[in-house]
Amino acid sequence: MSTEDGPAPEKKPEPSGVDLARVALRAAKEQARARGDAVQQKKQARRGGLRSGARADGRDPMALGAAINRLITERGWEAPAAVGGVMGRWPQIVGEDLAKHCVPEKYDEDERVLLVRCDSTAWATNLRLLAPQLVARLNEDLGHGTVTLIKVQGPSGPARRYGPLRAPGSTGPGDTYG
Questions:
Q1: Which of 40, 94, 116, 161 fits 98 for a cystine, CB–CB 3.0-4.6 Å?
Q2: Eight-class DSSP state of 106
């Protein structure tokens, strides 16, 4: 029998009583084996602790990478660890020119904001213009919504000193340091 799209799908026969019994027996054996293993471990623990054997078990040492990944997952540090990796690859993400003048300083996980400091106001302005594209590129690399905003800061100026050569209320050379 065929239809316009092709031959009719073949129906699988329903499992009979014997097949159902085999499946149930297999499941019961697996459950019994699991219970027996648990009882055996409890007996060994009462007799002076578990002893190591030739087979792998949960007490074997872990590889360093696996241990670190497990710790990151257990503590919920996935996003901060991923952003830390981005800070290490900053030149590949933003390009060599921009990386020479702009450095990521801090990531605020609660607000999902990346703080970037630039060495001049001109580079800070340039980065502010590129910020939407960088946010998109970072979220593409880290996962959607990991970084919502890039806060760009220019260079920090010298400490404000007061004295005879300063006018009260003066902010200093704001164009250079601001």
A1: 94
A2: E
H or E segment and range at residue 146: none
Reduce the DSSP state of residue 7 to 3 states and report it.
strand
pLDDT at 172: 60
DSSP assignment of 45-98, as one string?
Answer: HHTTS----SS--TTSPPPHHHHHHHHHHHHT-HHHHHHHHHHHTHHHHH-HHH
Closest by CA position to 124, among listed 149, 97, 151 = 151
pLDDT along the chain (178 residues), means of 10: 54 66 81 78 65 70 84 78 77 86 85 88 90 88 82 77 62 54
CA gyration radius, the chain: 32
**Alpha carbons 86 and 153: distance in angstroms, whole number:** 19
Pairing of strands 149-153, 102-108: unpaired
Question: Quick one: pLDDT at residue 157?
Answer: 65
Its pTM surpasses 0.90: no
Contacts of 50 (CB under 8 A, 6+ apart): 41, 44, 59
